[in-house]
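[recover] target loaded
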């Protein structure tokens, strides 16, 4: 079962919205959007893989949005180069977020010297510390904490129980989801002969424009300079980014990934879930790390890595294939050893 549209739309209207080409009746009426295997009469399905397309054209959906290679006969269709992008455009248009009022809750705490831009929303029990600046149209939801001398840009969303420690810098259109902690003191200690002495972390965190930070992400502030997340980078839930890390623009970091201190990540890097990166490793532009990779060494630009410890992708696949054959190889080895021992006994 998918989602029902607030108002029916025609295939023509949908095609105009995404700039697609219609195959079939443009006046077909659509009442919902669904997954290929859950579609009902009136639904449109967005198919960006061959499997999606086959299921969509064989199922009950009224219409399909598909790439040219996946178009089939039998149903009205909108042809686009990137159906997944088209889905994002349609959902943004048909299901816009509810507008927030320009409101400062009387239950919120806003300290002296705070500058609030036009149209800012501050919810119940939120806290904004002295000297902070909140840009126009930004929403600080209930129970969010923004420390002192924090700078938050325009049109941001700071969700409940998110924490922005002192002096954090946030660009425009940044989304920080519930429970994320930005600017916590970095994990730095030195042995002084009797115990571990904390090294004060006096740097900051900078989140550039259009960054999205998932729920319960931790991004630690730098020791002396800054921990920086580049423009348009998207970080999934439960990710740890340690002090002094520098992430480039438009990276994707999937859930439960951890970056140790001082890691440098180039633009457009993609990391699957539960990736671990050792301290001070450099990852080149456009590199990709498969889920659960443990990267201990630098990764060149445009390279692909997998495994623990991580290896170049093709090497990792060969190793995994060899591991699958290892039980049979060990069994054969034992048989050969037994035969050699038997021959030695006979000859002795």
């Amino acid at each position: 079962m998918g989602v029902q549209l607030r108002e029916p739309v025609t295939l023509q209207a949908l095609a105009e919205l995404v700039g697609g080409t219609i195959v079939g009746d443009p006046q077909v009426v659509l009442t919902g959007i669904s997954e290929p295997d859950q579609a009902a009469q009136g639904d449109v399905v967005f198919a960006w893989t061959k499997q999606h397309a086959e299921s969509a054209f064989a199922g009950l959906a009224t219409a399909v949005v598909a790439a040219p290679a996946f178009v089939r006969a039998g149903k009205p269709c909108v042809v686009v180069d990137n159906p997944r992008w088209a889905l994002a455009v349609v959902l943004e248009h048909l299901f816009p977020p509810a507008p927030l009022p320009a409101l400062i809750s009387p239950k919120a705490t806003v300290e002296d010297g705070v500058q609030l831009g036009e149209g800012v929303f501050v919810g119940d029990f939120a806290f904004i510390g002295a000297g902070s600046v909140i840009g126009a149209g930004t929403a600080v939801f209930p129970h969010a904490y923004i420390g002192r001398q924090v700078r938050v840009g325009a049109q941001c969303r700071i969700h409940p129980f998110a924490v922005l420690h002192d002096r954090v810098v946030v660009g425009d259109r940044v989304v920080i989801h519930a429970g994320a902690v930005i600017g916590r003191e970095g994990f730095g200690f030195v042995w002084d002969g009797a115990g571990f002495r904390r090294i004060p972390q006096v740097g900051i965190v900078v989140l550039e424009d259009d960054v999205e930070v998932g729920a319960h992400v931790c991004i630690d502030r730098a020791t002396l300079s800054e921990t920086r997340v580049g423009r348009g980078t998207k970080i999934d839930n439960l990710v740890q980014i340690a002090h002094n890390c520098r992430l480039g623009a438009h990276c994707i970091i999937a859930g439960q990934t951890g970056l140790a201190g001082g890691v440098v990540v180039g633009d457009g890097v993609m990391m699957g879930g539960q990736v671990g990166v050792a301290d001070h490793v450099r990852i080149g532009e456009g590199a990709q790390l498969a889920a659960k990779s443990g990267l201990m060494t630098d990764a060149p630009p445009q390279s692909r890595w997998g495994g623990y410890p991580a290896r170049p992708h093709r090497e990792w696949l060969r190793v995994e294939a060899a591991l699958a054959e290892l039980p049979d190889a060990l069994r054969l080895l034992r048989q050969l050893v037994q035969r050699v021992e038997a021959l030695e006994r006979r000859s002795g």
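[recover] notes: The chain has a mean pLDDT of 96.
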